[in-house]
Amino acid sequence: MRLIVDGKPMEIDADPDMPLLWALRDIAGKTGPKFGCGIAMCGACTVHVGGVAVRSCSLPLGDVDGEVLTIEGLAQGGKLHPVQQAWLEEQVAQCGYCQAGQIMSAVALLDQVAEPSDADIDEAMAGNLCRCGTYPRIRAAIKKAAALKTAGI
């Protein structure tokens, strides 16, 4: 199976029923997406496929249609993505386990809504769970990232 992962073509020799998460972690060496629940409910495994945020723990490899982007592919040319930068500035992470999935969902939101309202953020991020409860920081970081993105930073 041929995939493009973080901009690089890759041959994946695996069962088409294997969840994308395990192909990314065990074959492609991408450790950003995490296993949390295995039933697409927690969001720790979120990646983009064809520009859409998806739960990689429940997406069979054979159903992948489009380029795969993991958190490892967000930073470009040594420069953090605005969401990653805002995450640092707002000190969002505590344990950090959910952060890759949170960030990937936030990126997908800002790709669709340049200046999201609290309701937009709540809706887009509802499927991403944070056991540390940093939801107010996540909201602040998304708003900061929107401003950074608008400013071209």
From TrEMBL:
Gene3D superfamilies: 3.10.20.30, [2Fe-2S]-binding domain (1.10.150.120). It comes from the Bacteria. PROSITE patterns: 2FE2S_FER_1, 2FE2S_FER_2. The keyword Iron-sulfur applies. Pfam families: Fer2, Fer2_2. Keywords: 2Fe-2S, Iron, Iron-sulfur, Metal-binding, Oxidoreductase. This is (2Fe-2S)-binding protein. It comes from Kumtagia ephedrae.
